[in-house]
């Protein structure tokens, strides 16, 4: 399938993981998701190889792409968050006969493994939420592998009835039963050049060999030192050093975005909210002055991240580049007043707000207000941002973040367009894998697993 390693993206969403894998050098040639808005956004940015379908109703041998088992390099995807209470038997071996109507989201990861079982990729990566680490399941039958396919290459551990087993260990057992060496890794996106603290769990497996990436070695960013905290934004070197062009400084200079390579001698301080969004023109919920939507830049990029995220083609001027998805949502005057009261990085639970100004009943709406701190990475961008935006208040403007600002904090470049309603765009952005984190994971797998598994 060409000189680039091939990849599929299951549960592809708006395409954040695909974007990262493409930056890492993969040819992502097939993707699937059941969400029409997600597939439309994916196709707008990556082409028509994504299909809209319920993966539970698909047969990889019939509905999947035309590639022989064993030829695929990487199978990637992020099944929706599972939550488990009990396990009767492993459902992997009975997936062909199960009823979609009787199923729910907590077994969708098994559909991911069903595709692994059919395509036999050289490697896979499955992304999920860190909350899975604290989930356990109670074994109700004698083993958790009674229904696994006959003739699997590895025997999984047997567990007695009533034993509480961590969910990740159950998943690793099922991956091992398919003949894969696998492990899971908890990664914070901020350590890989995303201006946001966002922890995600990645299961990585390989078909042959034992060595898996040590992602600690691939980190590019770190907690800042005390003196670095005093500078809320990194300034582009050519602005700071006169006629010294950034291109001459090299990719490991503090004024540029580092590439992904293991064991770098120096790691840069975390990227901050100011690094990411403070060049964008002001907008206002009132829609007067400033306007509610901005479609043009008014300032050049100030930080290296801003220059990278704008993705201006060589020879083009920043003033000629269109700006999309930068629109303010409406807020009532009480919310706007509360926004102004908050200091940088300050958060309130609704129940902590004075009853005289409290807008909601705290027993019904356990929500939070939080103004993002410009000198730190953003807090985790979640799909909840589509609801009201109280947890994502702009550092200097009395409003919540725009979709474009949220996308930047997820490491989507400005050329990545979300052709959806504002509410849908928020949801798709919040659910996405940060592309730069996907690039880091994809690069490590390509070098450590695919590079040695010939």
Automatic annotation (TrEMBL):
GO terms (BP aspect): methylation; negative regulation of gene expression via chromosomal CpG island methylation
Entry's Gene Ontology molecular function annotations: DNA (cytosine-5-)-methyltransferase activity; DNA binding; endonuclease activity
Keyword Nuclease: yes
Basic and acidic residues compositional bias, start-end: 225-243
Keyword Ion transport assigned: no
Keyword annotations: Endonuclease, Hydrolase, Methyltransferase, Nuclease, S-adenosyl-L-methionine, Transferase
Region named Disordered: 221-265
Protein name as annotated: DNA (cytosine-5-)-methyltransferase
Species in which this protein is naturally found: Halarchaeum rubridurum
